[in-house]
Amino acid sequence: MGDDPAPDRDRAREKYRRLASGYDRFIAGAAGRAVGFSRRRLRAVATLDLAPGDCVIDVGCGTGLSFAAIEERIGPHGRLVGIELSPDMLDIARERVRRHGWTNVTLVESAIEDADIRVEADAALFCLVHDIMRSRPALDHIVNHLKPAARIAVLGGKTLPHKAFPLHQVSRRMLSRYVTTFDGIEQPWTLLAELVPDLRVRASPYGLTYLACGHLSPS
What we know:
By secondary structure, the chain is α/β, with parallel strands linked by helices. The chain has a single domain (9-215), classed as Rossmann fold. Helix content is 39%, strand content 21%. The protein has helices at residues 9-27, 30-35, 37-47, 67-74, 87-100, 130-133, 136-143, 167-175, 190-195, and strands at 55-59, 79-84, 105-109, 121-127, 146-157, 200-203, 209-215. A seven-stranded mixed β-sheet has the order 3-2-1-4-5-7-6. Helix 1 (9-27) packs across helix 5 (87-100). 41% of the residues are buried.
C-alpha cells in the first residue's frame, strides 16, 4: 500500500468524535454545496438504480445523510443497513431514523471488516469513506454480502496530483481532517476496481471528488 500507513480505527473514532456535532452542517451546508457533495451524493444514490423493496448497505453511513435519498427509492418494504465505526456519528444517524419514523433501517456500530451483516443486499453505497476504500478486507466483507450483479456506487474525495504542487499539498490538508491514511489518495478506487471489473469512474484530474459505479459479476 505504498509508503502511507493503513487506515487506523482508533484515530478514526477520535477524529469523528470531534467532528460529529458539526459534520452535517459542514458537509450538507455551504461548504459541502461549494464542493458539490450534496448534489453528487444524490447522483451516487441515483446510479444504484434502486427499486421498491431493495436492500441496501450504506457502508460507513456516518450520520445518515444518504438515508432519505435511499428510503425514497426503496420504500417501506425495502431494507437499509447502515454500518458505522464512530458511535458519535451513529448516535446522530439513530436520531435521524427516529425523527423520520423509518422502521426498515438497521444500524450496526462496527468497523466494516468485523461488521455482523445479516443480509444479502442488492446494492452498496460508499459515501466519503476513504479509509474503507483503502481496506481490502473491508471491501471483501461487503462484497461477500451482496447478491450477484449487485450495484455499487462510490462518492469520494481525492487530492490533486503531485504535479499540481502546491495545490496538491493544499488538497491533502483539506482531506486530512477526515482520513487516517493517504494511501491511494489520488485514485482511491483502485482496490474496488479489482472486485468490480466494470467500475466506471468520473473524476476530473484537477477536481477534489470522484463518482464511481459498477456491478458485481452476475455469478
